[in-house]
Specification:
48% of the residues lie in helices and 7% in strands. It is built from three helices and five strands.
């Protein structure tokens, strides 16, 4: 069984007289190159170790092998240094756009739901002579003494919270206020979606 060198990996450095063994530097260059494609930081050691491995293999005059591993480590390390920052920039641009797009979609859905509930409230007023009281709330649109159902269910807003209903309204004194607290869940902030704005 071949003796292990001081690094303990069974590879050899110049000066050994046994059959050619894989250069430790070449092997670790490949390992760091692969890791560099995932983490970026090991890319620099991959390049340094790749160069060291190639130099040692050349000086070893046949005592070392692993040129392919060293070259692969160099290539992977170089790609990681070039590609990973580009991917990081793309990600930094894309993620905010995705989040913004989702926020816009949620706001549009909230507006549509408010319009749908408002339509049902108008139908209720025409049938009953007035809007539901604040105590009755929106639930009366799905369950009332007349057995008339104006909505199959009262939806939550796109952020999973109930819509607010107030009658008489503070913003619409002759009518009602209908709104969602928006993404932040706090009433009166800029992301509220309100029925009196549309």
């Amino acid at each position: 069984m071949p003796e292990q060198n001081q690094c303990g990996c069974g590879c050899a450095e110049p000066g050994t007289t046994n059959a050619p063994r894989t250069s430790c530097a070449a092997l670790w260059s490949l390992i760091c190159g692969i890791a560099g494609m995932l983490l970026c930081l090991p890319a620099i050691p991959a390049i340094i170790l790749g160069i060291i491995g190639l130099v040692n293999i050349k000086k070893g005059a046949g005592a070392l092998k692993g040129k392919g591993k060293a070259i692969a480590g160099l290539i992977l390390g170089g790609l990681a240094i070039i590609v990973m920052p580009i991917l990081a920039i793309i990600t930094a641009i894309a993620i905010p756009n995705i989040i913004h797009g989702r926020d816009v979609a949620n706001e549009s859905m909230a507006k549509a739901q408010i319009r749908n509930i408002s339509t049902s409230l108008e139908q209720y007023r025409m049938d009953c002579g007035d809007y539901p009281s604040a105590e009755q709330g929106l639930q009366i649109l799905i369950s009332n003494d007349q057995g008339q159902k104006y909505l199959d269910k009262i939806p939550n807003d796109p952020w999973g919270r109930p819509y607010h209903y107030r009658y008489p309204g503070s913003y619409n004194p002759g009518s009602y206020d209908l709104w969602s607290d928006g993404k932040d869940g706090i009433e009166g902030t800029g992301d509220d979606v309100t029925g009196w704005q549309y």
